[in-house]
């Protein structure tokens, strides 16, 4: 798969115009390289807790503790079949039934991260756009595949809300998260659908949608939106980050194209067993209860942060994490670490500066202890 420049799209123009377009493209590429050098797209929350075994982890947006007992038992029982090669048909059918779509619209992946790599390598796109701030792996995967990525930066003063008019009309691939990591903003489904158009792939990362009560604004299962690709993760709510399991929902022809880019047996048998279990009726009921509990615990965290001088919460937050602005955030993070808490730095997300941190939602005792540590970690008032 090759990539193309904007200049190549103008082959019908005169030589002078073509040279001008080529010069503009070169300038854009130079600017993009400079921006990329300033942001570590491969820095993720797990980096904040490496080497800190005693830290309370508020940096990673994964269920605290271990998976529930019934899920661990399910994974353990799958180990008896490790001598056989993985067979994903049952898990694929279960995911399809969960969303009311035929299995041909489902692709199982080794987490959402693999899906981003497949999209970047398999789809023949020329003008990809990533809406930021958001999870940085989509842009990193696109760049690794040789694409020149344009960014649409949402603004704090607008509440990091999506402005569909800011997305370039010529974009043939648009990637946006919902709810978005790290802003925790839940975009209206109608705004996302408004981005779809013929000849464009619209990728909506719904990795945290099951943490939203009722999954309102979800697009998973929709088959009436042209070019829609929805990504889901089963690692967040169920504490399975080490197992790697997620899936893609898209038109059969897109699923087939992505599947051709996968190696044989890309998802392990234990991960397939977990996938089948996590989309069953029992798991869906439990996930619904968890979503309501997360919403209540998030409200407690946001209320507590609102009482801390010099701290501003981006909002309204709808995910299992909140984005917080605090002056001197780097020093605050270091002092929090000394007091036993790890939070996610924000300046590795395009569009955010060093004054931002992301905090995962946890239970009330953990939140109260964190708030106490945060107050003690703030720089003294001038």
Automatic annotation (TrEMBL):
InterPro entries: Aminotransferase_I/II_large, NHTrfase_class1_PyrdxlP-BS, PyrdxlP-dep_Trfase, PyrdxlP-dep_Trfase_major, PyrdxlP-dep_Trfase_small
Domain of life according to the entry: Bacteria
Cofactors named for this entry: pyridoxal 5'-phosphate
Enzyme Commission code: 2.6.1.-
Keyword flag Transferase: yes
Key words of the record: Aminotransferase, Lyase, Pyridoxal phosphate, Transferase
Domain Aminotransferase class I/classII large: 56-373
Alphabetized PROSITE patterns for the sequence: AA_TRANSFER_CLASS_1
CDD domains in UniProt: AAT_like
GO molecular function terms listed in the Swiss-Prot or TrEMBL record: lyase activity; pyridoxal phosphate binding; transaminase activity
Lyase listed as a keyword: yes
Similarity remark: Belongs to the class-I pyridoxal-phosphate-dependent aminotransferase family.
This protein's name: Aminotransferase
Species annotation: Streptomyces typhae
